[in-house]
Write a structure and sequence with these properties.
The chain has 215 residues and is an alpha+beta fold. It has 2 domains: 39-106, Antifreeze-like/N-acetylneuraminic acid synthase C-terminal domain (Type Iii Antifreeze Protein Isoform Hplc 12, Alpha-Beta Complex); 123-213, no CATH class. It is 26% helix and 28% strand. The chain contains 3 helices and 9 strands. Helix 2 crosses helix 3. The chain is globular.
Length: 215
């Protein structure tokens, strides 16, 4: 009987201690939020970013991290979404683990004789495409219009869905090197923000991204 009473007393004491610990944790969190402000999202470089290297959709998806920190510690001009860096290039190297600021980025430099005048909110964005070799002879000239076709991973039996993610966009440059060694080529396209965001998801989750000569 005494052992049973001791066991019950031990369980009750443990429950009281757990409740007290939870109360202290909640109090600490509330005090932290009250003292430092609500948590805000900030973009952090997951790896060192090279100066002048344009941030491609794949770079934003894999190389930039999103963290939440108290509002008091958010640096002025800190990006709040990795997609905000797509198509831009760092002015100087950005060390891994650093906050990514708008003042650190700029549009990539283009020569004064660039054959493509980007308008309508478009900016250069680099993506990796499959089967790009077929375009080298057909759409080799900068300014050619292409359709970006995405083949999604199948969700069940049968082939994945195929759809046009961006139609009639300017092809600014294509390959020829294969930096990943996986049969893909880097293609720089003139994309709107909406198209760039759509292709970020496609590069991360789709089976294949292909270019077709525009009609």
């Amino acid at each position: 009987m005494k052992r049973r009473r001791r066991a019950i007393a031990f369980v009750l004491a443990a429950a009281v201690a757990a409740a007290a610990a939870a109360g202290l944790a909640d109090s600490y969190r509330a005090g932290a939020v009250g003292g430092y402000g609500a948590l805000r999202p900030v973009v952090v470089a997951g790896a060192t970013m090279k100066a002048g290297q344009v941030v491609a959709p794949a770079d934003a998806a894999r190389g930039l991290e999103l963290r939440r920190i108290p509002a008091r510690f958010v640096p002025a001009g800190a990006l709040r979404d990795p997609s905000e860096a797509v198509g831009l290039a760092p002015l100087a190297p950005v060390p891994a683990g650093s906050y990514l600021l708008a003042s650190q980025l700029r549009p990539p430099r283009r020569g004064a004789e660039s054959p493509v005048g980007l308008g309508g909110g478009r900016r250069p964005v680099q993506i990796s495409v499959s089967g790009g070799e077929a375009l080298e002879g057909v759409a080799g000239a900068a300014g050619s219009r292409v359709d970006v076709v995405v083949t999604a991973e199948p969700t069940g039996p049968g082939p994945g869905r195929v759809y046009v993610a961006a139609a009639g966009v300017p092809l600014l440059s294509l390959g020829p090197d294969d930096p990943e060694g996986d049969g893909t080529l880097p293609a720089t396209l003139g994309l709107t923000r909406r198209q760039a965001l759509r292709l970020i998801a496609a590069e991360s989750f789709a089976r294949q991204v292909t270019l077709l000569p525009g009609s």
